[in-house]
C-alpha cells in the first residue's frame, strides 16, 4: 500500500475523538429537511441510487429524504475512544481519519483568521453506516460524503473509500484526507457566508444554478489543496505534529482522486454521455486544476472560483 512510501502520521500525536461522532451503531431515518446537503460528487457517484430527490434548483441529487420514521442516529464514541488510545492507533482506519480531521481543523483554526479575518468554529464529522438522519434530511451512503450547512456537520460512511478504490479508480490513501478536506472546505464556505450567497444567486438566476454549484465545489477542492500544503505544519493540542511526512506521491493521489470524481468522468462511468449542462461539481480537469491551485499557493485567498472568468462557463 501507499503507506510505505506515502504519508506517515505521528504515532505520538494525540487523537482528538471529540471531533467525530460515531453513529455506526444505529440506523438513520426521520427528521425534517432544513437545508441542502453538499455531496462530494455529482449525479450519483455510484449510479445505483434508487431514490433521488432534486432539491430546489441546485442539482443536488442522491439524498433520499425519507421524511419520518426509522430509528434515531444516536452516537456512541466508546469504541472509537478506546481504539484510538491504543499504541497502534495510527494503523487503524478510524483513528487515521480522526487525525486527518484534527489536522484539517487545526489548519483552519490558524488559517481562517489569517486569510479571511474570521474565527474558525469546529465542525463535527458524523461517521455513519448505510443511512443517517441529518439536519438536511435523511441520507444514505449512496450520496457519498457530504456537508450539511443546517447542522454544520460533515457526514461520511467510511466504506465510501472502498468504493473510491475499487469502482472509482482512486485507491491511494491520500484520497481519504482529500475527501475530508473538501467537505471541511464547505464548512469554511458556510462560515464565510459563501454558501448562503451562492444559494441566493441560484435563486435569483436559476439558469446559472449549476454553474454556481460548480464554483462552490471547485473552491472546496482548492481549499483541500491549501490544507494539503499546510498539513505537515499542523499540530495536536499539545503541539505535536500530526503528520510526520507527506510526499509528492500523496499529492498525486489527491490530484488523481479529484480527477476520478469530476462530473464528466462520473457521467462516462455511469454509461451516459457527457452533458456539461448537468455539471454540478466541475470537470475532472477543473477539479484537479483547483486542487493544485490551492496546493501550489498554500493560500486559500487564491481560491476565488467566483471571480469572473475563473471557471469556464462555455463547456
Ligand atoms: Zn463538495
From TrEMBL:
<feature type="compositionally biased region" description="Acidic residues">
    <location>
        <begin position="1"/>
        <end position="14"/>
    </location>
</feature>
<feature type="region of interest" description="Disordered">
    <location>
        <begin position="263"/>
        <end position="286"/>
    </location>
</feature>
<dbReference type="InterPro" id="IPR007343">
    <property type="entry name" value="Uncharacterised_pept_Zn_put"/>
</dbReference>
<keyword id="KW-0472">Membrane</keyword>
<feature type="region of interest" description="Disordered">
    <location>
        <begin position="1"/>
        <end position="28"/>
    </location>
</feature>
<keyword id="KW-0812">Transmembrane</keyword>
<protein>
    <submittedName>
        <fullName>Membrane protein</fullName>
    </submittedName>
</protein>
<feature type="compositionally biased region" description="Polar residues">
    <location>
        <begin position="263"/>
        <end position="273"/>
    </location>
</feature>
<feature type="transmembrane region" description="Helical">
    <location>
        <begin position="40"/>
        <end position="63"/>
    </location>
</feature>
<dbReference type="Pfam" id="PF04228">
    <property type="entry name" value="Zn_peptidase"/>
</dbReference>
<keyword id="KW-1133">Transmembrane helix</keyword>
Amino acid at each position: 500500500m501507499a503507506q510505505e512510501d506515502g504519508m506517515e502520521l505521528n504515532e505520538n500525536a494525540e487523537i482528538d475523538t471529540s471531533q467525530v461522532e460515531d453513529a455506526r451503531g444505529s440506523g438513520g431515518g426521520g427528521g425534517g429537511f432544513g437545508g441542502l446537503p453538499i455531496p462530494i460528487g455529482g449525479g450519483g457517484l455510484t449510479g445505483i441510487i434508487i431514490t433521488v430527490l432534486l432539491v430546489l434548483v441546485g442539482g443536488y441529487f442522491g439524498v433520499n429524504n425519507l421524511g419520518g420514521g426509522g430509528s434515531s442516529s444516536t452516537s456512541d464514541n466508546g469504541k472509537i475512544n478506546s481504539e484510538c488510545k491504543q499504541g497502534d492507533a495510527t494503523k487503524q482506519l478510524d483513528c487515521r481519519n480522526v487525525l486527518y480531521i484534527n489536522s484539517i481543523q487545526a489548519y483552519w483554526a490558524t488559517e481562517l483568521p489569517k486569510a479571511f479575518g474570521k474565527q474558525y468554529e469546529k465542525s463535527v464529522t458524523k461517521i455513519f453506516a448505510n443511512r443517517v438522519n441529518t439536519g438536511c434530511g435523511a441520507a444514505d451512503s449512496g450520496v457519498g460524503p457530504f456537508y450539511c450547512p443546517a447542522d454544520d456537520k460533515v457526514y461520511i460512511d467510511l466504506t465510501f473509500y472502498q468504493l473510491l478504490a475499487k469502482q472509482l479508480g482512486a485507491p491511494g490513501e491520500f484520497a481519504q484526507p482529500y475527501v475530508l478536506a473538501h467537505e471541511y472546505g464547505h464548512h469554511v464556505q458556510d462560515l464565510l457566508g459563501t454558501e448562503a450567497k451562492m444559494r441566493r444567486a441560484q435563486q435569483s438566476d436559476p439558469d446559472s444554478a449549476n454553474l454556481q454549484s460548480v464554483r462552490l465545489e471547485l473552491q472546496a477542492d482548492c481549499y483541500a489543496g491549501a490544507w494539503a500544503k499546510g498539513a505537515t505544519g499542523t499540530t495536536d493540542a499539545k503541539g505535536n505534529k500530526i503528520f510526520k511526512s507527506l510526499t509528492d506521491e500523496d499529492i498525486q493521489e489527491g490530484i488523481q482522486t479529484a480527477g476520478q470524481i469530476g462530473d464528466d468522468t462520473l457521467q462516462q462511468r455511469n454509461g451516459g454521455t457527457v452533458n456539461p449542462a448537468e455539471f454540478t461539481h466541475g470537470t475532472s480537469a477543473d477539479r484537479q486544476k483547483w486542487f493544485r491551485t490551492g496546493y501550489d499557493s498554500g493560500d486559500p485567498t487564491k481560491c476565488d472560483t467566483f471571480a469572473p472568468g475563473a471557471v469556464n462557463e462555455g463547456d
